[in-house]
């Protein structure tokens, strides 16, 4: 990447908020590589005139950038790395669904104990999957689960009946309405929504109580979509709502060693790696360089974040 930008941009690397604050003041653009850091919030210039004109996130989620000072910067362009993580995440979700359906964790445990125990397993074909989030990641998950023969229903920020790929996109507000009915009819519930004020804590005790007994829950969106204490209580309750769960994202990362989630019954803990297939760093660089070309040519961004919504809308890109 440095070779591609040689002679076209002066590159500086910041290590920590203090160094970033010094470099950010008066900079033209910022590549935010560490999606888990709040350094940008801490270092953002107080004078909007000294703030960068473009911020690119080396991630799909941009929730850590959606603080008032940045969002309120006049004329600011914010882009993300849409296109890198969708299919790897979808494959990871499919792997989890297959592992749960075929009880691979149970087979590994019995092998460890040298126990030969015949069991019946579940079919994925003909089961029902509810994917919460109708953006690129949710759609990739939906397509992949469809390929396994699952019936897929998607929910989004707003309901619509004319989606060219999935037909109807359901709403996802309130477990007392249609969303609760969808939860109750799903064998697999996959959270793939961006983190916004509307989705924070969406999966709480009420949502888990509406799930079908024996259902599995998977979160590949953002940690705070889930009230983790409520999920822990649901898994410990023995009601099977849900019976198993897989979390690739957490409210606090890395997950503290003392967290009870490590030993929650039926829970698979994954260290925020579902989208990181071999070669992902080079792909991130390519997305950034493509956006750099558009920015320097004064062309519209391909992955332009709507600062009011907090994500890239699903609209045709130039």
Automatic annotation (TrEMBL):
Keywords: NAD, Oxidoreductase. Pfam families: 2-Hacid_dh_C (PF02826). InterPro entries: D-isomer_DH_NAD-bd, NAD(P)-bd_dom_sf. It comes from the Bacteria. Residues 95-274 form the D-isomer specific 2-hydroxyacid dehydrogenase NAD-binding domain. One of its GO terms (molecular function) is NAD binding. Gene3D superfamilies: NAD(P)-binding Rossmann-like Domain. This is Hydroxyacid dehydrogenase. It comes from Mangrovactinospora gilvigrisea.
């Amino acid at each position: 990447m440095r070779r591609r930008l040689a002679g076209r941009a002066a590159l500086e690397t910041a290590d920590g908020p203090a160094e970033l604050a010094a470099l950010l003041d008066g900079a033209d653009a910022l590549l935010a590589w560490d999606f888990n850091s709040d350094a940008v919030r801490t270092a953002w210039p107080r004078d909007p005139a000294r703030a960068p004109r473009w911020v690119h996130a080396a991630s799909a989620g941009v929730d850590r950038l959606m603080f008032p000072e940045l969002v309120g910067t006049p004329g600011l362009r914010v882009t993300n790395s849409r296109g890198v993580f969708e299919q790897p995440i979808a494959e990871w979700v499919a792997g989890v669904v297959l592992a749960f359906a075929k009880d691979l964790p149970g087979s590994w445990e019995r092998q460890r104990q040298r126990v030969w125990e015949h069991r019946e397993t579940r079919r994925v074909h003909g089961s029902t999957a509810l994917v919460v989030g109708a953006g690129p990641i949710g759609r990739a998950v939906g397509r992949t689960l469809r390929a396994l023969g699952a019936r897929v229903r998607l929910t989004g920020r707003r309901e619509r009946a004319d989606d060219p790929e999935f037909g109807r996109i359901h709403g996802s507000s309130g477990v007392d309405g249609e969303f609760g009915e969808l939860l109750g009819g799903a064998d697999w519930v996959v959270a793939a929504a961006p983190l916004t004020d509307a989705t924070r804590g969406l999966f709480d005790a009420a949502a888990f109580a509406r799930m079908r007994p024996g259902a599995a829950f998977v979160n590949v969106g953002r940690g705070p979509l889930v009230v983790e204490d409520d999920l822990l209580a649901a898994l410990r309750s023995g009601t099977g709502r849900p019976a198993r769960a897989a979390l690739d994202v957490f409210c606090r990362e890395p997950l503290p060693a003392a967290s009870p989630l490590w030993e929650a019954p039926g829970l698979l803990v994954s260290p925020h790696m579902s989208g990181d297939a071999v070669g992902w760093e080079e792909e991130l660089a390519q997305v950034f360089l493509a956006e750099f070309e558009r920015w320097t040519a004064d062309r519209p961004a391909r992955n332009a974040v709507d600062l009011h919504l907090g994500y890239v809308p699903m609209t045709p890109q130039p």
